[in-house]
Amino acid sequence: MDDVVIIGIGEYVVVNDSTKISTVGLGSCIGTVIYETTNKISALSHIMLPTMGDKQDRIGKYADTALPAMIHDMEKKGALHGRMKAKIAGGASLFAFTDDHLKIGERNTEAVRKILSEQKIPLVATDVGGDRGRTIIFNPETCELYIKMVKKGPTDPSEKII
Amino acid sequence: MQEIILSALQKDALQEVANIGVAHAATALSKMVNKEIDMGIPHVDLIPLEKTIDCVKNEEVVVAVFLKISNELPSYSLLLISKESAFALSDALMGNTPDPSKQTLSEMDESALKEVGNVMMCAFFDSLAELLQITLIPGPPAFAYDMPAAVLDYVLIQIGQVADQVLVFNTDVKTAKDKDFNINIFLVPEPQSIQIILNKLGMN
Predict the structure, then answer these.
(1) Which of the ends of chain B has fewer CB neighbours closer than 10 A, N or C?
(2) Cβ–Cβ < 8 Å for B44, B27
(3) What does the radius of gyration of chain A's CA atoms come to, in whole angstroms?
(4) Are strands A4-7 and A20-26 parallel, antiparallel or unpaired?
């Protein structure tokens, strides 16, 4: 069994070897993988909310603070910004609520897209939205993002690779 | 960010409050399924946000019934039921003979389980409201069938906006004899609500 680093909600990790990086049970949260193959540096964040705003808090929780910090850490390890690529998964709505502010999954997805575009990092693959949670594992060797979901109906796929 | 600090005495008091609530929820369940119900000892734990995943049982998939409490004591409650328990519970409620070949939950099952959650948590919150002399109005129940971590993350997102730790009341209720189903009850108060409970108990 290969090494896998699993991160929790509001955390991020940067690896510079072939260690797989994973996070379990993304609901409305977003898992963002950024990788740079030339120097073989990969990173994964598990954000909960779009923006930190005025408060002082842990940077890993918010898209607007976690992603820039993670990119910066990648650069410190020698990654070239211009060669970075991104894949994202998550942003689902598991509970069928009607009130608007609960569409947190969509707001998270928009926030992550916006930051990646500001950072000029191409978003090469996405698997977002829907009503199912996702467990994701990124393999730096193949740059594949493996996604596992709960099969609810007979036609639902229970896994995919993007 | 608020940091929540609880003394051992305060934790005991909160545990006792949870105990009373769970006893009422278990009684309500017992009446619904006409079976004797056992309840576990409620755990009250202050857990860092990123570690909360450790307290959901290691199931691949769970049924979750979610209720939000607003008014005087903003809180989130979540009933987590394993897939096998969900089938057994639904059969017990509707008087169906268990069908071992059953693989998916029907709309009827879903609606029955949602109602169990609603009745149990309303019993829980009624007893809490009486004890603390406050008004608690639970919102409508919401249903999900998914990974435990994914259903929990919605609650964590709400708490995560104001705090880095989550106070989790966690216990389980199960049928006394045949242990055919088991329900995990999570109650996660917003940080301000913890203070309100402690104030009402004269424990601040």
Answers:
(1) C
(2) no
(3) 15
(4) parallel
In this structure, what token pair is assigned to residue A111? 């926030």
pTM of the model: 0.84
CA distances from B176 to A15, B40, B61, B98, B119 (A): 49, 11, 24, 18, 20
Instruction: Please name the residues in contact with B103: beta carbons below 8 A apart, sequence gap of 6 or more.
Output: none
Residue of A nearest to B2 (CA): A57
Q: Which residue of A has its CA nearest to B159?
A: A48
- Supply the CATH classification number for the domain A4-161: 3.30.1330.200
Domain boundaries, chain A: 4-161
* CA–CA separation, A122 and B128 (whole Å): 52
Report pLDDT digits (tens) over B23-58. Answer: 898 888 888 888 888 888 777 888 887 777 777 656
| B164-182 residue pLDDT tens | 778 787 777 777 676 667 7
The secondary structure element, H or E, covering residue B46 is strand B43-48
B53 touches chain A (CB under 8 A): yes
Question: Which of B50, B146, B156 comes nearest A94 by C-beta?
Answer: B146
| 8 Å CB contact of A96 and B150 | no
Q: In Å, what is the CA distance from B3 to each residue of B194, B195, B196?
A: 12, 12, 15
SS3 content of chain B, % helix, strand, coil (to 5): 45, 25, 30
CB B188 within 8 A of CB B78: yes
From B50, B104, B147, residue closest to A9, measured CB to CB? B50
- Percent of chain A as helix, strand, coil, to the nearest 5: 25, 35, 40
- Assess A124–B contact: CB distance below 8 Å, yes or no: no
Which domains are seen in chain B, by residue range?
A: 8-200 (3.40.1550.10)
Is B193 in contact with B166 (CB distance < 8 Å)?
no
